[in-house]
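Weekly structure sync, notes
Attendees: PL (lead), two postdocs, one rotation student
Agenda item 3: pending single-chain targets
PL asked that the sequence for the first pending target be pasted directly into the notes so everyone works from the same version. It is reproduced below exactly as submitted, 143 residues in total.
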Amino acid sequence: MMKQLEKQDLLALISGIVFGVGLGLSQMIDRQRVLGFLDLAGVWDPTLLFVLAGAVAFTVVAFRFVLRRKVPLLGDKFYVPSRSDIDIKLVLGAAMFGVGWGLSGYCPGPGIAALALGSWNPVLFVLALVAGMFAFQRYEAGQ
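Predicted structure, written out during the meeting:
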């Protein structure tokens, strides 16, 4: 079990590094580029559309092969969402994500990767992200 866990940890680290490098190369950690992409009414920058299209295309192809397996390479089972309903938590969460992304120019992955830039913007974003996560946990615990 320990070797399996070590393999999973190493694979997670490598995947995170590759993801972060990809975010940097695609300029998704550049908040001005992201805000330009989100500014449909102003001077719209469509370049991130190619990043999104590439990610979706890769996922569509890869999932066809991955989900043919009975179990993942380094796990006991696949964790595929089974719910398909749309509830108020989903709608509010999506709205909060969109507003936060539009205001800051970061979503969690690029915000964390942008910490490498040495700027205060991603630091403030990650602090707000962590505060929001703790606030949600407290809210859920009180329900």
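Discussion points:
- The chain is about 70% helix and 0% strand.
- Residues 83 and 91 are 14 Å apart (CA to CA).
Action: rotation student to compare against the earlier draft before next sync.
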